[in-house]
Structures are given as structure tokens and as C-alpha cells.
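Hi C.,

You asked whether I'd gotten around to modeling the 447-residue construct. I have! Everything is below, sequence then structure, no commentary in between.
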Amino acid sequence: MPTRFRTATLLSSGLRRVALLLVGGILTAAGALAATPNVVLIIADDQAWTDYGFMGHPAIDTPRLDRLSEQSLTYTRGYVPTSLCAPSLASIITGLYPHEHGYVGNDPARTPGAPRGPGASDPGRDERRARLIAKADDWPTLPRRLAERGYLSLQTGKWWLGSYKRGGFTHGMTRGFPEPGGRHGDDGLRIGREGLDPIPAFLDEAKQAGRPFFLWYAPFLPHTPHNPPERLLAKYRDKVDSPSVAKYWAMCEWFDETCGELLDLLNERGVADDTIVVYACDNGWVNRRDRSAYAPRSKRSPYDGGLRTPVMVRWPDHVEPRRDETTLVSTIDIAPTVLAACGLAPGEELQGVSLLERERLIERDQAFGAIYEHDIVDLDRPAASLKHRWTVHGPWKLVLPYQQRLPDAAAELYHVAEDPHERREVAESHPEVVAELTDELDAWWTP
């Protein structure tokens, strides 16, 4: 396989294993590389694919992420498999689609008739939440796989899967359900908003131990509450006639600042050149003009306002920085990328492709995903919560409603290469494209 990572023989137990990487010209001439680079995942929380300086936004300033994009292999046509945070994050950490890992919504459904409101108890829902979280115990998560290579790992920020330990992390911030506030991050939600502790101490511990590290940085930013520092909000008040939009724009810059602070920590410790930095967003967000909430065609929707994200990979001296505006990639591809770069074979259960294997990505030329209810209807049947399946193949995007649950909805087709904001629905005039993409969706997953 000429485009796969090839690993040289381990010369002795006292030497690092090295890898010869042949990936269709993406890598520089460095050749032999250490197979245990550090790994940092930066994951934005609720930010549209358009809302960065390097993606062309006319007002939002993101200088640190702009600089990261210049240093990275930057794919501008990236997608998440679903536009809701918990299942999207679960796919990043596992490399599995939501219908494969089973965490298809943020929460289990409420028990019919159970009381609601502050302090209300729903024991049945609590039992289902515990059973849902337990799914993570058997997942081939990145921290669990990287532990095979001696990695220390730290969870910070958003985390839905109980304690950080449930995901295989050696270190973490989130106590998790059933602890108070354990639904989606608890103590981890302080990261970024209240500084970067405990990241510096973790980096120092890994360096002193001579161990490679994996860092999950998924701050609660630019997510609501949109309460940016006044110095940033003042910058945007006069740039838009919507106070809620101004707040969101300021949150995007606040998030950018924290990313810069994190990258500075790597530089200060002299580990930046030995670290792979991967960037993506968990799902999109188009802010309403009248309040701090998402518009209909963004989060939780099958449209690119909720599904599309830039994806970046920075690996100094190993990955050639370049901007790719045509190749389709998915956050499903992050896990295979990290595993292969760290000397581990991605399991056969992973459908993703390494982001460094450009020839394979070009040959695939497709992304898949599905949209589910916010609350999971049946923990053991993903299709019980299914609303839409979708695929982007080349220039075309098909949104296919699940007829068993949306019997009156029709298929939607968009030429996203010419119509990136999906304003012109063209299914009626291209029935052959609808038929072809429907067959491809069925081959990917038939619910």
C-alpha cells in the first residue's frame, strides 16, 4: 500500500520505533519520523464553518487560528457526522459513526409522566443515562489505544461520557454523571473560560516522565452563555446591528485567544515541533439576530450551517502546510490519522481515512452522516431516533428524510460547490443524482 504509513522494525527496546511515511506528497522530505509524537486535539463548541478570519469572515478576528491554518494542512470542506455535540464528540474520540457507537443524542429520553423542573427526579432516565455512558467502556477510544504506546492523556472541556476515566484518559477534569452537574463536563467546563489549568502541570508531568501525551482541549467556547469579556464585546458592538450576534462574534475571538494560549504553552516547553495539533468543531452554529440561540438551519439540522467545519493538521517538518478547498474530509478521519501517526494500526471497524493520505481521500470524495433527535428514543436502536441521513459526494449534497419517522418530508438536493449556503434546492431537476446518492447512503447504512 504505497500511501499507507509503513513502520520500520523496532531496532531495540531502548529506541523509539520510527515510521517511513509515504502519503502522496503531503509530507516534506523529512522521511524517518518518531512514531510517538504528542497529540493535541482542539475542538470548538458551536461555531459555524464561516466564522473565522481564514475562512473569510468579514468581521470576526481569529488571528491565532488564522496562523494555525497557515502552519497546517487545512481542509476547508470538512464535515461532522452529526450536528449535535455529544454524538459528534463521541465520533471524534472513537472514529465511529453515531449509529455504530450508539450515542446518537445528548440525553436519554425522559420517562413519560415523570415530573419536570428544578429538583425533579426521574430515576428511569437516570438509569438509562448510566447505561448510555457505560457504552464508552468498550469503545476503542484514542486515549485507550494510545495508552498501548505509553501515552499520558488529559481530558479538558466538554465530555458527556461520565468520568474522564470512562474514556480511557489517565488524567482529567470531568467527574461526570452521577456527580452533580456531570451531564456534559462539570469541572471541565472551566477550561478556557477560567484559564488553562490543569494543562500546564500535565505538560510538565509528561515531559518530566519522558512520556508522549494526548490532550483533549474541548472548551465550552464559543458556546452559550455568550458572555464575552467586555473588551471583546466593545470591539463588535458597532460592527453589527444585532447585540446577540455581536456577543457571538466576541465569543469566537475569545475562543481564538484561548487556542493561542494553549499553543504558546507548547512553544514555551519546547514540544511544539514534536506535537501533532488537530483542529475541528463539534457542530456548527448560526446565531439568531433576536437572541443568543441557534437559527433553524444550523445546529441539529442536516444543513452545512450545522455540519461543516474546517479541519486542520499541524505537524512541523512532517506535514506540508497547504490549503485544500476541494477534498472532502470528516471528523471520522481524525482517529485514523492520530493512530497511524502514532504507530498504531487503525482497527478494521473504522471507516475513516487518515487526513494525511490525500490520494485515498481524493478517491473517496464523499462524506456521510445522520441527524437524530436530541433525546435518544431507544438506547439499543439508533434508527428509533433517526430523522435524516445525508451525504456529500463531490459537488452534490443529498438530505434524505427517514420516511418511517418523517413520512411527509421530501429528499433535498443541493449543488454545494456552487451553492455553499444551500439556498437552491434542485432535487426535482436532478432525479438521477438523487437516485445515485440514495443508493450510496443505503450502502453506507440502511436503518
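If it helps when you're writing up: The mean pLDDT is 92.

Thanks,
B.
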